[in-house]
Every structure is written in C-alpha cells, then in structure tokens.
Amino acid sequence: MKIESAEILLPSKGIAEDVEFWTSAAPGLGFRMDQIYPADDPQVATLTGHGLRLRLDKGATSTAPGTIRLLCSEPDSELQARELTSPSGTRVDLVSAEEPMARPPTKHAFMVRRLKDNTPWVVGRAGMRYRDLIPGRLGGAIIASHICIPDAGPVPDNVHYHTVGFQLIHCHAGWVRLAYEDQGEPFILRAGESVIQPPQIRHRVLESSAGLQVVEVGVPAEHMTTLDHAMELPTPHYRPDREWDGQKFVRSRLEDFVWGPWRMPGFEARDTGVDAGTKGVASVQVVRPATGEEQAVSVTSHDSDILFTFVLSGSCTLHGEGQDSQILSEGDAYTVPPGHKTCLTDLSEDLNLLEVSLPGRFNTTVHPRNELPL
Rounded to the nearest 5 degrees, what angle is found at the Cα of 222, between the Cα atoms of 51 and 124? Predict the structure, then answer.
C-alpha cells in the first residue's frame, strides 16, 4: 500500500452553494474545483487550494473533530476496511486513490417519460438544466438526460473528462461549440448531429446558441467528472484514430447521413458510426418511417440489455405488452426490456426517433400481430 495524497472530508448541505463559497472571487478563499459527480445532481465535489484537498460530500455525516482521507494506490483487502482514529478523536480513512466505476446490473423495466408530465428541470454542472429521462435509471445502469442551456453565449465550462463506460451527446435543438482532445480545432455540433465521448477524453463546452437542447446518455448512471487544469484545448495534434479504453471519438455529421433499412419493417434508419467506433459497446441510430411505404404494424421484441428511445420529432402511439397505450410526441422517451413485446402505430410523417442500445449488436424478433392487442 502506498499513500499518494490526502483530503479533508467536509459534510455538505448543498454542493453548488459550497463550491461557490470556496471557489468564488468573494470571499476569495482561492480554491478550485477538481472533480464533481454526478453531473446532473451533484452529491460530491473535490476542491484543491493552498496545499489542501477538500472533499465536499452531501452524504457525509458530521464527524467532529474531523475526518482525514488518505488516498492510496495498490488497494488490497486490508485497505478496504482500514479506518483509524487518532488519540484526539480525528478519524483517518485509508481509501483507494481511484474512484470506482462500477456498472450495476441492469434492472430491466418498461418505462415511459413524457415531456408534458412536467418532470422538474434541475440545475447541474456548469449551470446546465437537466431533465431525467429514465426514472430509477434501470438500477443505476444508465442515465439519460434532456439538457437545456436557455441563453446564448459562452458556457462557464472547464477542460474535463468523465470516468465512464459509454457517453453520447446528441444535439436536439440549437447548436453548441465544442473542443476535444486530439480532434482538431473546436467545431459546432448542430441539431441532428451527435458525438460519443470515449472514456476520459478531455473536452470542453465553449459556447451555445439560445435554447440549446441535447440528449446525453451515460453508462453507468453515476460517474465521476474530473477537471484537468493543466490541459489546454485544442491540443496541437490531430489523431482521429486514437482510442480511449478501446473506443474512438465519433462525430456524426448531417452531410454524412445515409438512410438504410432498420431492424423493424416499415422504418428506415441512419447509422451514426457508434457501433464501429465503440467496437460493439453501443449503437446509436436515428429512425423514421420508410418513405413511400405504407405503415406496417409490427410487433417485435429484442434481446439487448438496454434499449432507450427518445422522440426527436413527430408523434406515434407506443403499445407495450401488459401496458396501457401511450401517445408519444417530441421530448418523450421510453425504455423497453429484453423479451418485451411492443408495437408503434399512428406514425406521423415527421416522426424521428433516437435509439440507443447497449450492446451495439442484438437480435430483434418479429411476432404475429395478434400477440399484442392494439
């Protein structure tokens, strides 16, 4: 066991308010934020300044006269349960220097989240507004957020990265200017375009249009965001083939779209390149009714671990096995568990769906129509 650094644990009643207190120009305490998670509703933040590292934690209880956390490399079974107390009562916790990224097993569920149900928007990292699209997050396996930045202009973001297994950003409305490590000059992501952010790629949100809306999907649901104060973006090298934990940076642009057959009859899809870029970790497709074809009523099921869909435009009716029919429109989302029969009907001409699957390759079974009462 090797102790690499230490931090002081401070209970927090509100992460945003405490971060503001320690880092703002007034009162001028001179700390800066290094890590925060989860991004949509922060519970933990770490700050550094003047040789100190502070861990603000909403889940920590007051432990007078204080707790010192010693961050250790080479964790072992002895380290996991190591907790000491000084003669004066100060608690000393020996913990791993690496924040764990555990992906909980998926708790499969048929879920629908509708925009008109007025799910609250929560102010999260960098002042962005978040709307949770998957209640319960399938047991912590995935988070899907509808994110909004109301005002145009620079975004108060820093170079940072996420300790994550998979992360998608799909621009739903407006535009946003982004910079990524080893991916050339900053670029504008327009409505209808998407990127995947490989694990720990450094990046920064620079500015946005008024009314920017993006759909962000991350696995697992809770993951660490770490600020990199040393790196400047853009980096001097362009390395399009670089991999981070086996995944490449993928940018899906409007001018590159090609429509082709989808896994369900009566629809067509455009592939975003995510399946290839992640080596099968995930797949992202934009789907619409096939042009020039009559609407087909197809009852299907699948064997994917996670299948998430967001309605980008238009409307349809979702029928699920043992569920009431749901009329869906722009901004609505749903998850379908493996083996669960579903069907889409009443498709509007402008219907567009964003489908995200993990893993990227899975099987779809088409069932007789009478197996799902419509």
Answer: 75
Other beta carbons within 10 Å of 140: 17
Mean pLDDT to the nearest integer, 38-61: 88
How far is 284 from 135, CA to CA, in rounded Å? 21
Contact 368, 298 (CB under 8 A): no
| Contacts for 79-84: CB closer than 8 Å, 24+ residues apart | 79/1
The per-residue pLDDT for 31 is 87
38 SS3 class? coil
pLDDT at 282: 98
> Phi-psi region for residue 79, left (φ > 0), alpha (ψ -120 to 50) or beta?
alpha
- CA–CA separation, 293 and 295 (whole Å): 6
Measure the CA–CA gap between 23 and 49, rounded to whole angstroms.
9
DSSP at 238: B
Say whether the peptide bond before residue 289 is cis (omega within 30 degrees of 0). Answer: no
Return the residue matching tokens 């913990």. 95
pLDDT digits (tens, 9 = 90+) for 9-36: 888 888 888 888 888 888 787 889 999 9
What is the torsional sign of CA 226, 229, 230, 233? Answer: positive
Torsion of CA 223, 224, 227, 233, to 10 degrees: -30
